[in-house]
Structures are given as structure tokens and as C-alpha cells.
Recover the amino acids of this structure.
């Protein structure tokens, strides 16, 4: 079977700091990513999101592109420092007005808005008070979220509280490769808990408003497999699975942390009632999927006694293995192990070395990648997973965080000198898939 059910939503995704630019316009405050990207040595070629795709000024054309592609839903993120420049207190109406215009343009184009409330751009003013390591940031997040709910209500069909809390916590506080650039495991555990608490408190605020919209969280999930059937590899893979997946799934769907996370000291930041708040019921689950990891035992690794093996087959420009079956497995796992809620694949896509040739980009590898991942979604659906939609990461080439602009994930090529947009061949392919609601590859 290669036909998608009538209710299945075909979408595209982006995030604010990666595309908007206009970092000093209309009262926006600085975020941790402005500070981090302007710190020497933190991003490739010292690139920043100052201009990015200039989407702040070009959103009308970008919505038109989506309309031309037949996209049914657009997942974007709202920049907290545009809405509350100091993180708390004063609301910046001009910041909200931008998203108001964007949402109106989407609705007029017949495209359903899906809005993420936190895609990593914490107001720097809050970072100055400890950022996510400070419990007050969870409360500040819920208050900001409530400002957004009050303004946009049901004009946004689905809200996502936090995007990939694993990345915010671990890449930002343990590995130091994302903002705020810390390398402190105690801070990581605290940040992870407060990101989840902020999620739960935002869901409570949402429920308090009786809105017609839906709410969920998006986790990045990895399919973790042992490198061999030997007991030590299987056990190492189980520990890696706790670290990569269960840390952010168990509390949301089972109101508990895995024992191993307890051993890392999370109990010192968990207060009575937190896990009940974190597990406040949701309407849907967002899953971002990029890779599978093969894991072997490694006694030299002090934390997990485990090592990730490099992918052996085809890879993307990011060096990530292309393993669409992993998507089937993570979707089945959410359904069988955690919740029967509808799932949206809120990100799936790949960077490849795109070349603009005579006005076209023949990105066959991306087309094949997307086709195989959409096949995986159909396979999961046949296997009983209630998967309701797929959002390609990304609509546009954009600022890939510490990697800068080199890694192009877009269906649309962006010339950063002129800001000209060119549809890649994969975009034209996606347009045909959406138009026919069927997977077919020609040529
Ligand atoms: O670009 C990111 C996005 O911001 C979050 N998910 C993964 C993407 C590709 O790395």
C-alpha cells in the first residue's frame, strides 16, 4: 500500500532562530543563541542567525511557496524573546503581531498552523539568572506560553510546548556545543527537569483556557540497537536508551524517571507534585526522527560505559546513517510502550551537499530519503500506529545551529547572498506526493 489516509497531514517545519533573522527588530530581546553564536569559536565560520533566511521580512513569499507546494500544515516556532524580551514581565505586542500576521497568512492560504513554543531560543535575561537550571524558568515559560495561548487561541491548530528537550539539556549543558554552552552534568539534569516541568506547567495553563486547539510535546527519538547479541552490548544499549530516549519519555507518559536518571541526582531537583504536572495528559505526541545508533559496551566511558559505533551504510552530510526502519520502530515503541495518542512526525529530513546547476537542484538523495521515511510511516500505520502527519525538516535551508549554514536541510534552496529561493527537485516531488496522496518515484 502506498496511499495515505484522507486525514493524514503533509507538512513542513522550521524554527524561529534558524530562519527569521531580524534579531534586533520590533523590540525583540537577545536570546542565548544570539550570545552563543556571537561567541568566538562556537559556530562554524562564526556564523549567526542575525539574518538567516530573512523570513521575518519574507514570510509572505514563504507562505506562498508552501501554498504552491500544496503543504497542508506549517510547523514554525514562536520566539520567546520577541514576545517577552526579558523573559518575564512586559509583553512586546510588536513581536506577537509578527506571528499574528504569519498565522493569518497561513489560514488564508488554507495551511494549518502548528506552533512550537520553545525551540531553544531562551531569553538571555533568564540565562543570566541560571536559565533552565533555575526552577523559576519553568514558571516563566508557562507564563509566556499563556500569553501566546491568549493571543492566538484556536487559530493555531496544534501547539508543541518544547522541541527536543534532550538537545536543549544535553547539547547545551553537558556537551557545551549548543547554547548556553555549559559542560556540567549537574546543570544538565536540573535543566532537563525544568524543561519538562515548564512543559507540564504550560499544558496546565493551556487546559485552563478550554481552547479548541490541541497540545503536545516533541521529542527527538533514536532507535538504539546493540552492536551484537553479547550481554554486555545489550546492557550498554539499554543504558544508552535511557540516556537518549527514556529520560524524556518516562516522566511525560509514566510520571516517573528511569532509575538510572535517579542515580544521576535528579531527585535533588524534583519537588512533590512535579511528576504529576509533567505527565498532565496531552492530545498528541510529536516525534522527530533522524537516526539509529548501534551501541557497544565500553568500560572507558565513565557515564554510560557505552560507545556509539559510526554508521556503516549510507550517510547524510551530517554524518548520520540513513535508517528508515528505525522510524518504524520508534513509532511502534511509543504506541506499544507509552501511549495510544495520535503521533505526528514533527521532523524528518536530511542535509545533503546540494548544488545549484542551471537554476535547478537535483537532490535525488533527499528525495529517496524522504520517500523511504514516508514508506516507514505507512509501514508503522499498517502495524497499528496512529500516525497522523509528517513534517519535512525543513521548508528552507537554514541556520543549522553550531554547524552554521553549510548543512542544507531545505526542500527550498536559499541563496544567502541574495535570499533568492529555488525549489529543489525534492520539493517538486513532495508536491506530487501531496497532490496525489500517494508515493510514487519517477525517473
Ligand atoms: O535543525 C535541527 C532542528 O532545529 C531540531 N531538530 C534537528 C534539526 C536537524 O539537526
Amino acid at each position: 500500500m502506498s496511499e495515505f489516509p484522507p486525514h493524514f497531514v503533509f507538512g513542513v517545519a522550521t524554527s524561529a532562530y534558524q530562519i527569521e533573522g531580524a534579531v534586533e527588530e520590533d523590540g525583540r530581546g537577545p536570546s542565548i543563541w544570539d550570545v552563543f553564536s556571537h561567541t568566538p569559536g562556537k559556530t562554524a565560520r562564526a556564523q549567526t542567525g542575525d539574518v538567516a533566511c530573512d523570513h521575518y521580512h519574507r514570510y509572505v513569499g514563504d507562505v506562498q511557496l508552501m501554498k504552491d507546494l500544496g503543504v497542508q500544515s506549517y510547523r514554525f516556532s514562536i520566539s520567546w524573546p520577541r514576545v517577552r524580551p526579558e523573559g518575564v514581565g512586559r509583553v512586546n505586542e510588536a513581536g506577537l503581531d509578527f506571528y499574528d500576521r504569519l498565522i493569518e497568512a497561513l489560514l488564508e492560504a488554507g495551511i494549518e498552523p502548528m506552533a512550537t513554543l520553545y525551540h531553544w531560543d531562551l531569553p538571555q535575561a533568564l540565562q543570566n539568572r541560571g536559565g533552565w537550571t533555575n526552577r523559576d524558568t519553568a514558571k516563566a515559560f508557562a507564563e509566556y506560553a499563556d500569553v501566546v495561548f491568549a493571543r492566538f487561541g484556536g487559530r493555531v491548530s496544534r501547539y508543541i510546548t518544547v522541541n527536543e528537550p534532550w538537545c536543549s539539556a544535553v547539547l547545551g549543558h553537558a556537551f557545551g556545543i549548543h547554547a548556553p554552552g555549559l559542560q556540567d552534568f549537574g546543570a544538565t539534569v536540573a535543566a532537563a527537569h525544568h524543561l519538562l516541568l515548564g512543559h507540564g506547567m504550560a499544558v496546565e495553563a493551556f487546559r485552563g483556557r478550554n481552547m479548541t486547539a490541541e497540545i503536545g510535546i516533541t521529542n527527538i527519538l533514536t532507535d538504539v540497537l546493540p552492536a551484537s547479541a553479547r550481554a554486555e552490548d545489550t546492557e550498554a544499549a539499554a543504558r544508552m536508551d535511557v540516556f537518549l530516549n527514556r529520560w524524556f519519555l518516562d516522566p511525560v507518559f509514566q510520571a516517573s524517571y528511569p532509575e538510572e536518571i535517579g542515580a544521576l541526582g535528579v531527585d535533588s531537583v524534583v519537588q512533590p507534585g512535579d511528576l504529576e504536572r509533567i505527565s498532565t495528559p496531552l492530545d498528541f505526541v510529536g516525534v522527530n526522527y533522524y537516526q539509529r545508533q548501534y551501541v557497544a559496551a565500553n568500560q572507558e566511558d565513565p557515564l554510560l560505559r557505552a560507545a556509539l559505533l559510526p554508521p556503516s551504510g549510507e550517510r547524510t552530510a551530517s554524518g548520520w546513517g540513513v535508517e528508515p526502519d528505525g522510524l518504524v520502530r520508534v513509532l511502534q515503541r511509543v504506541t506499544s510502550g507509552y501511549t495510544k495518542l495520535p503521533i505526528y512526525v514533527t521532523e524528518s529530513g536530511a542535509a545533503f551537499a546540494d548544488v545549484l546547476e542551471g537554476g535547478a537542484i537535483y537532490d535525488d538523495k533527499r528525495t529517496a530519503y524522504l520517500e523511504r521515511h514516508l514508506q516507514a510511516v505507512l509501514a508503522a500505520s499498517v502495524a497499528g500506529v496512529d500516525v497522523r502527519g509528517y513534517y519535512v525538516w525543513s521548508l528552507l535551508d537554514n541556520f543549522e545551529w553550531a554547524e552554521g549554514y553549510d548543512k542544507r536541510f531545505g526542500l527550498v534552496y536559499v541563496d544567502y547572498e541574495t535570499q533568492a529561493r529555488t525549489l529543489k527537485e525534492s520539493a517538486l516531488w513532495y508536491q506530487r506526493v501531496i497532490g496525489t496522496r500517494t508515493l510514487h518515484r519517477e525517473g
About this structure: Residues 9-226+270-290+323-436 form a domain with the TIM Barrel fold (CATH 3.20.20.80). The chain has 15 helices and eleven strands. Residues 172 and 178 are 4 Å apart (CA to CA). The two ends are 20 Å apart (CA to CA).
